[in-house]
Design brief:
The protein is an alpha/beta fold. The protein has twelve helices and nine strands.
């Protein structure tokens, strides 16, 4: 790597087509232990609901389990979808995690529901109002996690005084601007929304105002990684996530598919072209090729950190990829990362 930056992992707790939710949970714990051993900066899990291929709906519960099998690596949400929840509930959950695992918890926030609208309504939040109130809810959450004052009518116990660091996550320009104005670190979802990457980073930096949490902007960006011992094996393994994205677009709710020898046997040429455009920043290839692709992405984007997801359905190949990439790219983080 020509420019040394921290690397982290976004674990989507994939449920493979021949696996159970328990299998996915145990795999997530194994990934976290391996990430710690190989020098990744943090492991995040994302809140998704009603998806047969994702096991991290109860994100805070998953993080409690991740924390129990690791010792030092930062763990957190990438992210909690705040419109689904009352800010007080999230303050209590992450205040509890901070008490369990001091100085290790990140709280990344998003404003999408993380699911379909029927499931979103079943979460029993007024979604329209909740999305509109997102900036106020983020500020309220900060208040709950900060030091209490005598005139506060509501306190978070646990949560009060924990000062769990907040991140804003986004796949558009909205959260970039808000993160800058609030002086929070920002993580952009370039692993599935590549078009706005450079505009989002520029808008965040232009709007950044120093805060109690950060004096300078800090940006991470998502990249999918699929590693094979040969280019052909990597492309074969990559067909799992290509099929997964096709299922999302078709409205098919299914576990993560196994790879196929010929992607055009299950997807049309138009589907493959559209999906590959969406996944254009994915690093796919041999370990050496992936290292170069990640280096190129870091240089082109100028981000401070890259957070990697490994959408490889075979557990052992997934773990091997995490280990190989970790050994190639990971360095000790700047102590002033947050």
């Amino acid at each position: 790597m020509s420019r040394r930056i921290p690397f982290s992992i976004l674990d989507l707790a994939h449920v493979g087509q021949d696996n159970t939710v328990r299998d996915a949970i145990l795999k997530s714990q194994t990934i976290a232990r391996l990430a710690e051993e190989t020098g990744y900066q943090r492991v995040w899990l994302a809140e998704h609901h009603g998806m047969r291929g994702v096991a991290s709906a109860a994100t805070a519960v998953m993080l409690a389990g991740i924390g129990s099998v690791t010792r030092n690596i930062r763990i957190g949400s990438g992210g909690i979808m705040l419109p689904n929840h009352a800010p007080l509930v999230i303050a209590e959950q992450f205040g509890t995690l901070a008490a369990m695992y001091p100085n290790r918890i990140d709280l990344g926030l998003g404003r999408a529901p993380g699911t379909d609208m029927a499931t979103a309504r079943a979460l029993r939040r007024n979604l329209q109002g909740a999305v509109e109130d997102y900036p106020a809810d983020v500020a309220q959450l900060q208040t709950y996690l900060g030091d209490a004052t005598e005139d506060m009518p509501v306190i978070a116990v646990p949560g009060e005084g924990s000062k769990v660091p907040l991140w804003l996550l986004g796949s558009s320009l909205y959260s970039a601007q808000l993160a800058g104005k609030m002086g929070l670190p920002y993580s952009f979802a370039s692993h599935f929304a590549p078009d706005a990457l450079h505009d989002a980073i520029r808008l965040y930096q232009i709007n950044f105002k120093a805060s109690q949490q950060r004096s300078q902007p800090y940006v991470s960006a998502g990249v999918m990684v699929v590693v094979g011992q040969t280019p052909e094996e990597a492309q074969y393994l990559f067909t799992s996530v290509q099929q997964q994205f096709a299922n999302l677009r078709r409205g098919v709710n299914a576990p993560m598919p196994a790879p196929v020898n010929d992607i055009y046997s299950v997807l049309s040429e138009h589907e493959v072209s559209a999906i590959n455009s969406t996944l254009r920043y994915a690093a796919v290839g041999t370990p050496e090729a992936v290292e170069q692709q990640l280096s190129d992405f870091a240089e082109a984007s100028g981000v401070d950190e890259i957070i990697l997801s490994f959408p490889i359905s075979d557990e052992q190949k997934c773990l091997k990829a995490i280990s190989q990439v970790g050994q190639m790219v990971n360095v000790k983080a700047d102590p002033d990362w947050l």
